[in-house]
Amino acid sequence: MSSAEVRSLERPADRLRRRRVANRAMELLAWLAAASAVAILVIVVFSVAKQGASALNFDFLTKTQVPFAPPNVHQGLANAFVGTLVIVGIATALALPVGILIAIYVNEFARPPVRYGIGLVIDILAGVPAIVIGFFVFGLIVVAHGQSGWAGGFALAVLMLPLVSRTTIEVLALVPNSLREAALGVGAPRWRATLGIVLPQTIGGVLTGATLAVARVAGETAPLLFTSSLVTNNIDWNPSHPLQTVPVAIFELSESPDPADHARAWAAAFVLLIFILFASLTARWLATRSRRKLGRAAG
Amino acid sequence: MPRNGKLVRIILVLGAVAVAASFAVTAASAKRSAGSLKGAGSSFVAPLVNAWIAPVNSDLGISMSYNAVGSGGGVSAITNKEVDFGASDAPLSVFSPTCSTCVQIPWALSGTAVLYNLPGAKNLLKISGAVLAKIYMGQIKKWNDPALQKLNKGVNLPSTAITVVHRSDSSGTTFNFTDFLSRVSPAWKSKVGTNTSVAWPAGVGGNKSAGVAGIVHQTPGAIGYADVAYSTIAHLNVFKVLNRAGNYIIPRLKNIKAASALDTHPAKDGSLSIVNPPKNAKYANAYPISTYTYVDVQKNSANAANLKKLINWAVTKGQAFGPKLIFQPLPAAVVAFDKKQIAKVR
Amino acid sequence: MSTLDTTTDVARRPLSGRRAHLGDLLLQGAAGLAALGAVVLVGLIAYKIVQGAKLSLSTFGLGFITHVGWDPVHLSFGAGSFLFGTAITSIGALILATPLSIGIALFLTELAPGGIRGPVTALVETLAAIPSVVIGLWGILVLGPVLRDHVEPFLHSALGFIPLFGPPNSAGTGIFTAILILTIMILPIISSISRELFLSVPGELKEGALGLGTTRWEMVRGVVIPYTRGGVAAAVILGLGRALGEAIAVAQVIGAFTGISWNLFNPGNTLASMIALNYQGASSGLELSSLIYLALILLVFSIIVNIVAQLIVRRVAKRQGLAQ
Predict the structure, then answer these.
(1) Rounded to an integer, what distance in angstroms lies between the CA atom of residue A244 and that of residue C290?
(2) How far is B86 from chain C (nearest CA, A)?
(3) Alpha-carbon gap, residue A139 to A154, rounded angstroms
(4) Residue B230 exposure: Cα atoms within 13 Å on the Cβ side
(5) What pLDDT does A133 receive?
(6) Mind listing the pLDDT tens digit for each residue in A210-265?
(7) Is the pLDDT of residue B26 over 70?
(8) Which residue of C has its CA nearest to B189?
(9) Chain A / chain C CB contacts < 8 angstroms
(10) B 212-251 residues inside an 8 A Cβ radius of C
């Protein structure tokens, strides 16, 4: 007897049961998959929190690194926090205006083929690995002028640019055309219409993209290894010197044989995670707020 | 304008202020503050240089900072004039490109220890250069291999696998270690050779001496090499290494001192090698992998005055900070040579 | 991607001749300059990388790509062992991450009770926000010892007849650790894109199938997955792109060994991790140029992967646009 005949001899009730069992099994697998993802996240965050909290104290946030010091010397990573603040600040100041301008060009002025082309260029830029960007900035700036916070900031800005551009393009596209036409209708010149009416509508989305981009590059290590790694251990706000940064500090401390260094690495990771989570939550809140506002404007 | 328009303007103004502020800060501190020196390089000498930071500040009024990026990183940093001084355990002639306008000064003396992590091994184990070479070539894979067992009669070595740890970055310590292996093992010399970075036949790579010590510290059964100070830092045992006199020696101050008697007159370019002293009563207790480490300074330095103060202090008063970290104070002849070298810097 | 393509749009096309305001010209100029800058930037990146690799390109040519070994003493370099490392870690991560991600996405779109859908989505996306250096830190200090002490010996004893699961080393670092780390990193990318794709399946199609009496799994298998097949493929390829380029976390856990070994528990090296660990003070100009050659290979791969993913996305969007 062929399998088809065998199968047709199967009572409908049995076949139904078999299909239900298969369904149950796949549902179980899906639950397991989700549970494992949540478990991984919880394990990682828990490790960071547990190990990091024990080394997190006032000294850690206010004192600087003292390599090879005996355990009784107070040290911390204040120089890294300051450096990250400066370098990420420079990156944001560079990437945000340029990203918004690119989005304005793509959405408000460019013809469709140009729009497609620049969209493609931005997608290519987004796909360049951070370490290749590090080599690029190294060859472009560091070889001639040495390492500096500016070079590090520029490298991070290159990483942020596609993120900011993409989100701004998407949000600008959501603004209804009627708004633009209405602005032109009352006699406003294009630039006034774009900057004064269209762009402000999207500020929530733009800030969302910017916040997410900042959260992303605050933890980037590879480009900073090439551009800002020969650092002093003092608190330094001057971007023309190479500045210590939190991710590079974590990278260096993670390889040390000293458990006290590991504790500091965990604590730095903890602070970094909190900053990034806070930024992501802010971005999410801004996104919902702007979506609500755009919904009101369109409706 | 709608409410958001104001928000846009506020953000733009804040951004402009931030950029202007950083330009102002840059301009204000454009001149490096008098009395600050920046150095980078060897992780071998890093414990000692870091111990110098505080006394240099109080004795000389110079604020020094040092980045242990490895000898290779130090030499390229000083070649590109990114730092005031570079530190390297390998002589400049080994690197290419190298700093042809630099002065090379041997400023510290210590030993390259062979660290190991073998829980349960109570006393320090013995090893010979030949066996070490075989281990690093991947030919000896377990701790209870007959070759190792023969050198350590009476010790019950376990069958744990040996994890070989080496440097993954460009390292002067690697240069000195492979130099020793090349001298004691013709097979190593022809197959792998001597350099700051080689094609390692086996094992795991660690970044800088701290990375190597870190991996050995975490990995039962691991063997690695680093400056002997790292054995204290990482709480690791060191092998007693066989020297040509037939004795098994650990890198203590007196053993390094014995090795330094081999040659106290640096070559014209400043390099000085005391690896593997020959069989002679004078070197009976010499540690065979004793090494000088160098500071490299541009002949024409922006910070020449401070550099000369620093290095003069380092090779004289600074040596007193050495013994605690197992750095043997420099022989008088070397100090004399160093002072002449420093005079070339202007 | 903008869905508004009309050129007759007065409000959104390039400025025309006479009635252009000075402010308009300035804005269009500045914006155009910025856009041009992006194009120039990409070109400059390609140029600088090729320029840096020129010495190695002229010395070794294309044979560099297959040559295995990295010998600074005898000045012989090659990308072979790193291509192998990149391939085995990326493919391993994809094999583990793809079913997991699709499972998560299906869970979030079909199975999750309303209350936990939001939080679990947020949690999975938070996984994406964890910086690679932190995951690498966790990999060295937490995952590595667990793998070394429990998982690897178990896998070797259970599956040791397969050469992939050879004798474990005692360092806890290695290709297997790197695969697990990469899996964790690309999981959120594939799952969040898949989730949005599954959400975009028209409700009528799904309800139609269920109405015919299929089980939920049969509906997924027969409607959701075929409908989103292209998009999910693009998501997987984007995940691949992420895995290819990851340097730091991999450098921390892979053990920095140059050579080809099929034993997953051995150390290895990928293109990205080799660059990260060795560029500082390469011992010769040729070695530095060879490292940049590695970066060039990585760049070419990443661009190809990205373009392929984008092409698939565009084709899928077009097909879905027609279908509606």
Answers:
(1) 28
(2) 12
(3) 13
(4) 27
(5) 95
(6) 988 998 899 999 999 989 988 888 888 999 989 999 999 999 998 888 888 899 99
(7) no
(8) C73
(9) 289
(10) 215, 218-222
Instruction: For chain C, give the longest Cα–Cα distance.
Output: 80
* Residue segments in chain C with a per-residue pLDDT below the cut of 70: 1-20, 281-283, 319-324
Give how far the C-alpha of residue A72 lies from the chain's centroid of Cα atoms, to the nearest Å.
37
What does the block give as tokens for C251? 């450098």
The reply to whether residue A240 touches residue B38, judged by beta carbons under 8 angstroms, is no
Q: pLDDT category, A54, cuts 50, 70, 90? A: confident
At A146 the pLDDT is 86
Q: Is C66 on the interface with B (CB under 8 A)?
A: no
**ipTM at complex level:** 0.87
Query: No. of H helices and E strands in chain A?
Result: 15, 0
Query: Residue C68's CB: how many other CB atoms inside 10 A?
Result: 14
B96 has which bridge partners?
Answer: C284
Is residue B157 classed as helix, strand or coil in its secondary structure? coil
User: Closest-CA residue in chain A for B12?
Assistant: A97
Backbone torsions φ then ψ of A83, nearest 5 degrees? -60, -45
Indicate yes or no: CB of B170 within 8 angstroms of CB of C281. yes
pLDDT in tens, B322-333: 999 999 999 999
SS3 B65: strand
Closest C-alpha to A222, from B195, C212, C251, B257? C251
pLDDT surpassing 80 at residue A57 = yes
Say yes or no: A263 contacts chain C, CB-CB below 8 A.
no
Tens-place pLDDT, residues B50-63: 999 989 999 999 98
Alpha helices in B185-241 (DSSP H): 186-191, 208-218, 229-233
Q: Would you state the pLDDT for residue A207?
A: 86
What are B112's two structure tokens? 């390259």
Euclidean distance between CA atoms B329 and C179, whole angstroms: 48
Terminal Cα-to-Cα distance of chain B (whole angstroms): 63
Q: pLDDT tens digits, residue range A94-120?
A: 999 999 999 999 988 888 899 989 988
| Residue whose token pair is 């077009």 | C318
Contacts of C38 in chain A (CB under 8 A): 98, 102, 118, 121-122, 125, 161, 165
Percent of chain B with pLDDT over 70: 90
Where are the strands (E) in chain B, listed by range?
Answer: 36-41, 63-67, 85-88, 102-116, 126-127, 163-167, 204-206, 222-227, 237-238, 240-242, 248-249, 290-298
Q: Which residue has the tokens 């070989």?
A: B164
Structure tokens belonging to residue A56: 């997190």
Q: Do B72 and C282 touch (CB under 8 A)?
A: yes
Mean pLDDT in residue range A138-152: 91
The more confident residue out of C10 and B90 is B90
On chain A, the residues whose CB falls within 8 A of the CB of B8 are 195, 199-200, 203
In this complex, the residue of A111, A124, A251 whose CB is nearest that of residue C133 is: A251
**B29-65: b or e for each residue (b if 16 or more CB lie within 10 Å)?**
eeebeebbbbbbbbbbbbbbbbbbbeebeeebebbbb
End-to-end CA distance of chain C: 18
**Is A107 strand, coil or helix?**
helix
Distance CA B254, CA B247 (A): 14
According to DSSP, the β-strands at B290-298 and B204-206 are unpaired
pLDDT at C4: 43
Q: What pLDDT, on a 0 to 100 scale, did the predictor assign at position B97?
A: 78
Distance between CA A81 and CA A76 in Å, rounded?
10
* CA separation for the pair B323, B153 (Å, rounded): 32
Q: Is A95 helix (H, G, I), strand (E, B) or coil?
A: helix
Quick check: B59 and B313 in contact, CB under 8 A? yes
Integer Cα distance of A226 and A223 in angstroms: 6
Site of tokens 């030949």: B130
Looking at the partner chain, which of A68, A195, A239 has a beta carbon nearest the beta carbon of B22? Answer: A239
pTM, two decimal places: 0.89
